[in-house]
Design a protein that fits this description.
Layout: H1 3-10, H2 22-30, H3 39-47, E1 52-55, H4 62-72, E2 76-80, H5 84-98, E3 104-107, H6 113-124, E4 130-133, H7 135-138, H8 141-148, E5 152-157, H9 177-184, E6 189-193, H10 198-207, E7 214-217, E8 225-231, H11 235-244, E9 250-255, H12 258-270, E10 275-278, H13 284-295, E11 301-305, E12 317-322, H14 329-336, E13 346-352, H15 354-364, H16 369-387, H17 392-399, H18 414-417, E14 422-424, H19 426-438, H20 445-453, H21 458-462, H22 479-491, E15 495-498, E16 504-507, H23 509-516, E17 522-524, H24 550-567, H25 571-574, H26 577-586, H27 591-594, H28 602-622, H29 637-651, H30 656-662, H31 667-679, H32 687-693, H33 696-708, H34 714-720, H35 727-742
Parallel strand pairs: 1-6, 1-7, 2-4, 2-5, 3-4, 5-6, 8-13, 9-11, 9-12, 10-11, 12-13
Antiparallel strand pairs: 14-17, 15-16
Helix pairs in contact: 3-4, 15-16, 20-22, 24-26, 31-35, 33-35
Length: 743
């Protein structure tokens, strides 16, 4: 069907269901021969003007459920979406279908007055079939008045979980949608989400006053996705290695903060990965440009904040990496759901550390008590998921109220792929369930685990639970163990968490039956995530964890000595000892790799590096050395900018004290920074400053000393001059000497 035919269709009178040929319409508008899953029934229900509620996993084809009816029904469909990026993406896609830029519009804060007026004119004239709006835009009085004056076919609410306080991305403005809809027009509503637990589903329907809606719930199982959780150790190196092994594939890396997004994107770029940052702090035009570059495959990887979300509908995303774990299992499921939407391979790798959970808990501080309780419960679920040894697919589906036989996972998660230690747990399970009963089914997981292990916490003391007969009956095992038993009891359906009371545990009928007649229960050993990195530092130039090669070190010392004699310069001028030692960790065999060595810049590598890399390459081959595969990054751009700024200030002959003060550093720290710059091969001229500190004869004397010395050690120099010059003066002279002789 061509553009003209499509436009003609919009003028048709309202049809009855018998007039629609949905399969023909699907082929005409979208080029598909058949519907996926329950799409056809959903569309029929909406065309019959019935309220509709769709729970369908990411990649299941939710968008088509409201896009096709909007083509067929007279008037304009109003689609509420929380993400500006998603609106733009979907509007572009619809316009490309029809080659008609009037057919779909979005209305949000990114548009100016003139652009908004153009949108309204197109709707009035009946040229627009779909209007994507942000919920905030719908609350504006002039927008409500405008929509009241035009023909609305139906309302669609994308990302409907935002309505529920129990949803992972609650948006207060979503709670007002029903009230606004009723002011505009009494037309059908279709609410859609990829993530809704039974509690969230009920909350959405109740808030929208559509408990009468026909509910279509697809399976949450994405059988083409592989789930893996790793301890957060040397995470940047792992991410770089992972992406480099999948060269040319599209992927998303999620981070907790905007700052981390910028750092990781830059780190990937430095390592030859075509990556771009994406977060709410970027200018709108930059975000749009980065999104388009990702969609058009001009960039392989997008690094984005978890909090902001992506909203990018790209079918061939091959991997999703979580540098920081999500704030809820719903968020995690939705974010991982961006992988493999075309049905192809989708790998979901997340790095987990409890320190990230602590950061997320801090974000809850200062919020209303109820919101804090909900937030903590959601965090507890993601902790349970991360640390569990149960099939990850089974855990996720259980969370969304769906049962699953883990045999069907087909090793598509790390827990099923890698053998896990098993043990008979009938006695432990019975003890756990009896403890829940003895506490009158009024406590949450943490309290129950403390009760079993005999830990006297403030709550245990306050409730006097340490005086109960069952207190400490499981003390031969720690709280971590009991937490594992509890999680597995929940997934097995013996216990249930009461959402209304923020996670209080109660026995199910199946749990009561187990107590009556205990049967074999196989427990799986949980993962231990206690050993994770303490810092957030970005990878820098050291071969942490690699073995030091003492033999090579001695050989490189000899090589340096022979070159120093040949060139009549002190050995330390060529490469200082820390640089040689780093070579004995990393084994650089190219000039590029040499610049990743501590204290070696491009200048120094070009001047002195060739014999060293040749020697190391021969040594590696001769001794069959397996070089560490760690990727080393010397500096990030922010550090490079400071370096450039420092050199520029010295070139302007600013007093060093003033430079230190402007950078918030002590004079000693500034000297250290200048020394680092010089030792890596960059020349700086501080003669203007030295001339005010030392006379010409004194400078010549110290310069001659360094020219003949075996070592550049300042203490040796101080002793040689018997304290005649201060340590500071000697360091300044060493900087001048290294600049003039070494660089």
């Amino acid at each position: 069907m061509r553009t003209g035919e499509i436009c003609a269709c919009f003028q048709n009178e309202e049809k009855t269901m018998s007039n629609y040929n949905l399969k023909e319409s699907l082929r005409s508008y979208f080029g598909f021969d058949k519907f996926k899953g329950s799409q056809e029934e959903i569309i029929e229900n909406l065309l019959e003007k019935r309220n509709t509620f769709v729970i369908m996993p990411t990649g299941g084809g939710k968008s088509l459920c409201y896009q096709l009816p909007s083509f067929l029904l007279p008037g304009t469909a109003v689609i509420v979406s929380p993400l500006i990026a998603l609106m733009k993406n979907q509007v572009d896609a619809i316009r490309n279908l029809t080659n008609n830029e009037h057919i779909a519009h979005f209305m949000n804060s990114s548009l100016g007055k003139t652009e908004i007026q153009k949108v309204k004119d197109d709707i009035r004239e009946g040229r627009t079939k779909m209007l994507y709006v942000a919920p905030e835009s719908l609350t504006k009085k002039d927008n409500i008045e405008f929509l009241t004056s035009v023909n609305i076919s139906f309302f669609a609410i994308d990302e409907a979980h935002c309505i529920s306080e129990w949803g992972h991305d609650f948006r207060p403005e979503y709670r007002r949608l029903r009230e606004i809809f009723e002011k505009i027009s009494k037309v059908p509503i279709i609410a859609l989400t990829a993530t809704a637990t039974p509690k969230v589903q009920h909350d959405i329907q109740k808030n929208l006053n559509m408990l009468d809606a026909v509910v279509y719930k697809s399976s949450f199982n994405r059988d083409n996705l592989y789930y893996e959780i790793r301890p957060k150790r040397e995470v940047e190196k792992q991410i770089i290695r992972y992406i480099k092994s999948r060269e040319g594939q599209s992927g998303i890396v999620y981070c907790l903060s905007r700052k981390k997004v910028e750092q990781i994107a830059e780190l990937l770029q430095i390592n030859g990965i075509n990556a771009l940052p994406y977060h709410a702090g970027l200018e709108g035009n930059v975000r749009a440009k980065h999104q388009d570059m990702f969609l058009m495959e001009e960039a392989d990887v997008i690094v984005a904040t978890i909090a902001f979300g992506m909203g990018i509908d790209k079918p061939d995303v091959r991997f999703v990496i979580h540098h920081d774990i999500s704030k809820s299992l719903e968020s995690y499921y939705q974010e991982t759901g961006r992988a493999g939407r075309d049905g192809g391979v989708g790998e979901c790798l997340a790095f987990y550390s409890y320190k990230d959970i602590e950061k997320l808990e801090k974000f809850l501080q200062g919020k209303p008590v109820t919101e804090q309780e909900i937030g903590r419960q959601l965090l507890n679920e993601i902790v349970s998921y991360s640390e569990t040894s149960v099939c990850r697919r089974k855990f996720i589906l259980h969370y969304f109220g769906e049962s699953f036989d883990e045999q069907g996972c087909n090793e598509k998660c790390d827990n099923c792929k890698n053998p896990r230690d098993r043990m008979e747990g009938k006695g432990y399970m019975e003890l756990l369930l009896r403890s829940v009963l003895s506490l009158d089914e009024t406590q949450k997981a943490k309290h129950i685990c403390a009760f079993l292990s005999g830990s006297i916490t403030p709550d245990i003391k306050a409730y006097k639970h340490d005086q109960l007969e069952g207190f400490g009956l499981g003390k031969e095992r720690d709280e971590h163990f009991w937490n594992a038993v509890l999680r597995q009891a929940t997934v097995a359906g013996l216990l249930t968490k009461d959402i209304e009371t923020f996670g209080v545990l109660r026995l199910t009928d199946k749990g009561h039956a187990f107590i009556e007649k205990p049967t074999s229960f196989i427990l799986l050993k949980e993962h231990d995530f206690s050993n994770t990195d303490d810092t957030d530092s970005i990878v820098s130039g050291s071969a942490k964890g690699a073995a030091f090669d003492e033999t090579l070190y001695q050989l490189l010392l000899d090589l340096r000595k022979s070159i120093s004699k040949e060139r009549s310069i002190p050995p330390f001028v060529i490469f200082q000892e820390p640089s040689l030692k780093d070579m004995c960790f990393q084994y650089p065999v190219t000039m590029e790799e040499l610049t990743n060595i501590q204290g070696v810049g491009n200048g120094k590598a070009q001047r002195y590096g060739a014999p060293f890399v040749a020697y190391i390459a021969e040594y590696v081959e001769k001794n069959d050395i397996e070089r560490p595969q760690d990727i080393m990054v010397k500096t990030l751009v922010n550090k490079s900018q400071l370096k450039v700024q420092l050199i520029q200030n010295i070139d302007r002959k600013l007093p060093l004290e003033d430079i230190a003060q402007s950078q918030g550093k002590s004079f000693d720290d500034l000297l250290l920074e200048i020394e680092t710059v010089v030792s890596s091969g960059t020349r700086v001229n501080i003669n203007y400053y030295l001339n005010d500190v030392l006379d010409e004869d004194s400078q010549d004397e110290v310069f001659d000393y360094f020219n003949e010395a075996e070592s550049d050690d300042i203490i040796d120099a101080y002793k040689e001059f018997d304290g005649l010059y201060t340590e500071e003066e000697l360091r300044l002279m060493r900087i001048r000497f290294m600049s003039e002789v070494a660089n």
